[in-house]
Amino acid sequence: MNCVLLDSPFEPWVWLAKYEAGRVQPKGQYGATAAFVGTMRDFNQGERVTGMFLEHYPGMTERSLEAIRRQANEQWELVDSLIVHRVGELHPGDPIVLVAVWSTHRKDAFEACRWLMEQLKAKAPLWKKEQLADGSRWVEKNTPG
Amino acid sequence: MHIQVRFFAGLRERLGIAQLELSLPEGATVAQVWEQAVSGESLPVNVLAARNMEYVDLSCKLADGDEVAFFPPVTGGSV
Lengths: 145, 79
What we know:
heterodimer, B: Ubiquitin-like (UB roll)
């Protein structure tokens, strides 16, 4: 699977190493790997955040991630790409997302990795509910990046 | 025709509805689903809609058995 949703904590670098060892073929065909890991902060909009729930739309979220990945393949020459995204309960410091791209040259890898991340934030049905010291709130705006 | 309707995230909590089934006339649109499901409340400007798990406009015409979802702006990823 190139797009994976996980409902429990994961180690992005372990995932990346295992995926590359098992799936990214043929060895010697790619000269560039770009990876992005997003991690949960303990502050947002000036307030302390103690936890978060990431809601998704089972079925549509997976489909949306796969569509974004396919579009990246049409725009850049990629050997492979991987998106792993958390859903459910998260705590500050937990990895939320891993995006990795393999390509022949660095330009495609850097550009596609950034593009995948921005598309994912804009298109994939995922919603954050932040837990604060005195209640909770739905996040309805993305950070500028 | 029968349409499955779903709401997500803050919209679901505010409306107090997660899922319902509606009966609508043939050729009904996504906007008509909202009107019938959430009577008396106009559609918030930033609400997104999906038909069978693909984004659509509110004017999209539906077919029997479709699933329609309404939800707030998405906020995945991080940083």
